[in-house]
Amino acid sequence: MSSPAKTVRVTVDNRVIEAPEGATLLQVMLDAGLDIPHYCYHPKLSIDGSCRLCQVKIDGMPKLQISCNTQVRDGMVVHVADPEVESTRRGVLEMLLLNHPLDCPICDKAGECWLQNFAMRFGRGTARTIEPRRKQGKRMDIGERILLDQERCILCRRCVRFCREISKTGELAVFNIGDHSQLDIYDRRLDNDYSMCVADVCPVGALETKDFHHQIRVWFLEETASVCPSCSNGCNIMVSAARDRVWRLVPRRNDEVNDTWMCDAGRLNYRFIADPDRLRAPLVVRDGALAATDWPDALGAAATAIAEFVKRNGAKALGAIVSPHLTNEENFRFGELLRTLGAGRVAMAVRRGAHDDFLIKAEKAANARGVRELGLVAGPDDGLEELLRACEAGEIKALYLCGDDLIDAVAPERLAAIVCRLELLIVQDLRMRPEFARAAIVIPTTTFAEKEGTFTNHAGRVQRITPALATPPGWMSDGEVFTALLNLVGARNDRFDLAGVWAAIARDGGRLATLRLADIGPHGAVLEPAPGA
Amino acid sequence: MAVQVVKVRRPAQSFSSANPWLAILSGLWVSTRHFLHNLGLFMRGRQDFAIHFPEQRLVQPPALRGMPVLVQMEDGKERCVACGLCEWACPTTCITIYPAETTDEVERYPKIFDIDMARCMFCGLCEEACPEEAIVMSRQIEIASYSRAGSLWHKQDLLVPVAQLKTRTDYLRRNYDR
Q1: pTM of the full predicted structure?
Q2: Domain check: are B28 and B95 in the same one?
């Protein structure tokens, strides 16, 4: 394509649409808000032209054309609301439904199935065949996380193209020809790191994730736009929640981050939200043992313990480990708290794991870059080694610990030795970990699905998360905990809300201050490159 | 956007819809018939026109919508596949279903199927929504209980053998053109 792209004018049903030259007619019509049924076309996959549903009438062409494989030309006149187009759609849908099992009542796709939707809107409503439907493989276990139902498949080959072009593993193919075509795997099972995306691209229920199989009907789900918390890539997701729990995470399109994909590990990492071992109330040491208490009591105890410790040992003996799982706003508030206390050393522990050159990043936390951009930590290992040495040397005698990434970042014996030396340990975490059994105060943390805020991904893109679940009455999110502590130790009277924190961020003048909360749209906003970077 | 004129083809008017007063006459005829019937019984000496419930019971017509029940197949299993349409159709949200998988040919069944009879209003929308004829309105209307927990009916309480529901299923097939 030449650049700058020339604009052409296309007429669709008497409506003039402007589009860049060389664009696909189907995409142009979809972008203009027209309702064109299609199956095989996917904006992030190559053109296949196998479903024949997007056919339109174009003046000057002898027959109907598939709009997904037609480039727009200047002066092109297209007819969509045309009897010929409508009867062709009816015919195509009737053919796709010839052997479709119509087991919608037990199909997990029902409710978000493109075949259901288009057959209801553009199809003929009743079948004319009396012949028995073709029997093929059902509930075929083709991968660790994926089930295949060959009867439901409409052979659009989206999944085949996904495996060839995106995951570049090529497990799937359509075997045989004509009426005998069927989707199947080669001798290798569909076990790649992105395999569950084939269930997303599948317009029908032929490919389903085992994780969501027979869980809940999709029409009960409420979807909330959010960001995947599992690694620093920050894939945009939808959190599907119903009945006070999360049922699945699905990718949300963001061409700057994850296109329309996400990895299986991230997609399956939501069960911790409903972990039965999750702390439901703060714990405070009373009579030598940790006991559940209410929030104001625990925060009062924490503030008192910190104040007494500082009086005995000085603020320089207080260290903190920041969590890369908390939002920018919460970490900013935590930074304010640590500055008010005058904490000696601040570090961050980040769990690391496998990575690839596509979406999966090594840092298994959503906001490690955000913590660094806030200026809370510095150094190649985010100050962790220095802080640990200071603990071992006895310079740091109290630790405010957020998150449990420390358990994976430090060898167990070393961690146990450090914890034993501490005079005061305050832990803010999801569950009670045996490693931190010596904690004086344990405060429950709030997951990404229950709060709002922003995460900064590895590339410096600040993206918003929104709460999908409600927290129990009286519950305090991490930001509210930090704010309450700040109010107690700093004699302030703050509240924790996004607008207030962002005003403080703007006053603070750090790197995040180059953005305003309103700048962060559904696809996030990128931080200005650092001066000198 | 260009305005389009769509010509709608309407069905030809039937005789009864062209003459709505006929419905008034037929309604009057029902009342008059009952009046004349009871008048005849009274003239022949009948004194008592009440049904002495519970010793005496009316034979309920198949159109009666009693409490919804689940159809139990001959093999003892429910016909329900937990598709959730009744749950969605229910205006009082008294139905709660949790599906699960089996190794049977029909791979899905309700692990939990609860109806809160305290909330049910016997509208029959669940029965109408059901694609499997698995939930039907029975003729059972005596469902009072001493506690709220007692009016929460679980799957095992709701199952009724298919043979006992024949009157209703026949009625459904006749009237809903199934």
Answers
A1: 0.88
A2: no
